[in-house]
Specification:
Blueprint: E1 5-10, E2 16-18, H1 38-48, E3 56-58, E4 64-68, E5 72-78, E6 83-85, E7 88-90, E8 96-98, E9 104-106, E10 115-119, E11 150-152, E12 175-181, H2 190-198, E13 200-203, E14 211-215, E15 230-231, E16 236-238, E17 246-248, E18 255-256, E19 260-264, H3 269-273, E20 280-288
Parallel strand pairs: 12-20
Antiparallel strand pairs: 1-4, 1-11, 2-3, 3-10, 4-9, 5-8, 5-10, 6-7, 6-9, 12-19, 13-14, 13-20, 14-17, 15-18, 16-17, 16-19
Amino acid sequence: MTDRALAVVRAGALTTVQDRGRPGHAHLGVPRSGALDAPAAVLVNRLVGNPPEAAVLETTLNGCALRPRSAVTVAVGGAPCPVTVGGRPAAWGAPVRVPAGALLDVGAAVSGVRSYVAVSGGIAVEPVLGSRSTDLLSGLGPPPLTDGAVLPLGQPVGPHARVDVAPQPAPPAELVLHVTLGPRDDWFTPAAVRTFTSRTYQVSAASNRIGLRTEGPALERALPGELPSEGVVLGAVQVPPDGRPVVFLADHPTTGGYPVIAVVGASDLPAAAQAVPGTPVRFVAVRRR
């Protein structure tokens, strides 16, 4: 049995293995998946000397606790949270050495939703379609972590960064999503489109890795009925029958029958990953198709 492994002592509410995802398989019905806050995942990998594509752990709200079988370097980023090693406070946003057998505890997020844990060598679970990411919609990749699970680790490939604390964006107090209207904005009344781009929504507690759901004014349809299913992309803003916009995130379905009123720019999606329920959301139109 290799000593390059992590034992999961506390899995947390939802902790998954994530990397850059598996793009290019939508024609097979396979979502992209991957870390929702991709810049945070890249940063923690850099801090421990991993390449940017190495697999990390993505926690949700209440963190996780891990025990390495050999000494490792770790870094925790994304949503700010307390970090301890062997019961003693350790740095967040910086490389930390964890001795063999010591307990690394990643605590509950102080703000934001998802923290990222990189370990020197990366999480070395078996890749599926070129990615180690857990996909909650299709079921591809490793299952979400459970207490007692053991995760293999790869071999370190580079030295860790020499920094005290790496700057990271704060989770949003207000989530501003810049959108391109279309392709189905004509399925809504002009008043609904104005509402969509001028009123404030809130992040719903029903949000997950598949989509950021919102609460707020319902958008009125101009056309009755439903569309035949058509392809949808990362960042698509789909409007189900209740009229409340849903922003598709990494584990989104590759097709859908509800009209897509707009698409969010890719650079705004990492902030969406860190928006806690109740966060105000504004959709700002930047151009038309």
